[in-house]
Amino acid sequence: MIEIARLTKTLRSGDRPVQILHGIDLHVPAGEFVAIMGPSGSGKSTLLGLIAGLDTPTSGSVKLAGQELVGLGEDALARLRGRTLGFVFQSFHLIPTLTAEENVAVPLELRGDRDARARAKALLATVGLADRGHHLPGQLSGGEQQRVALARAFVAEPPILLADEPTGNLDSATGDRVLALLADLRARMGTTMVLVTHDPGLAARADRVVTLKDGRIDSDHRRAP
Fold first, then answer.
1. Residue 177, exposed/middle/buried by CB under 10 A (0-12, 13-18, 19+)?
2. What are phi and psi of 160, to 5 degrees?
3. Among 60, 116, 128, 163, whose CB has the most other CB atoms within 10 angstroms?
4. Please, what is the end-to-end C-alpha distance for the chain in angstroms?
5. What b/e sequence results for 89-113 when a residue is b if at least 16 CB atoms lie within 10 Å of its CB, and e otherwise?
6. Hey, what's the torsion of the CAs at 204, 207, 27, 211, to 10 degrees?
């Protein structure tokens, strides 16, 4: 489902290059839940952005569902993301002028689904926000906004969900609820999930934990069945 080979990323700091990722090889089969951990600056968010096609690698290959991302134009990348990916950010990234229901419906409306609003309403009910659909993001708590973001990520039933610190801005009780929702939605839809996290509680729920250190895979452990 996700195939990464010899992936590198180099940025410039002033007049010198800084290598963020060093030859990453990673295969994530369909349906697997992978947590990516590591200290700040280890390359976790950079790797997630490359998997999502939000950034371009310096070298190497990224394939989603058999499709090579490297070399695709912006329009083709956007179409692939629309078909294949859901993305959850730490800072929610909701559109402030749209209601919760409208935010969730956006991915479906962009591809022309006529039942977008009905499906958005149904998924908000699934995440416990049936009575909050008419509220703007600024009228919702952080935990409620993250649940709206989860509903938006899952509404198009993407085969792959990527999340960058999805519980990072939440208190522990709200974070636990969001984790339970992630697990429930994944079980219902069979989604392949890759989550960047510092949270050992989240990592403990994963099938596999990949730890980065200095831009390299330091360890890769699957949970015992």
1. middle
2. -130, 135
3. 163
4. 21
5. bbebebeeeebbbbbbbbbbeeeeb
6. 20
Report the alpha-carbon distance of residue 67 to residue 115 in Å, rounded: 28
The Cα–Cα gap between 39 and 23 comes to 18
Instruction: Kindly report the number of other CB atoms within 10 A of residue 75's CB atom.
Output: 8
Q: How are strands ordered across the β-sheet holding 59-64?
A: 16-28, 2-13, 59-64, 67-68
What percent of the chain has a predicted confidence (pLDDT) above 90?
A: 44
Residue 114's CB: how many other CB atoms inside 10 A?
Answer: 8
Place of tokens 């089969």: 29
Residue 63 has pLDDT above 90, yes or no: yes
Q: Where are the domains of the chain?
A: 28-58+73-222
DSSP the chain: -EEEEEEEEEEEETTEEEEEEEEEEEEE-TT-EEEEE--TTSSHHHHHHHHTTSS--SEEEEEETTEE-TT--HHHHHHHHHHHEEEE-TT----TTS-HHHHHHHHHHHTT-TTHHHHHHHHHHHTT-TT-TTS-GGGS-HHHHHHHHHHHHHHT--SEEEEESTTTTS-HHHHHHHHHHHHHHHHHHT-EEEEE-S-HHHHHHSSEEEEEETTEEEEEEEPP-
- pLDDT tens for 98-109 read 999 999 999 888
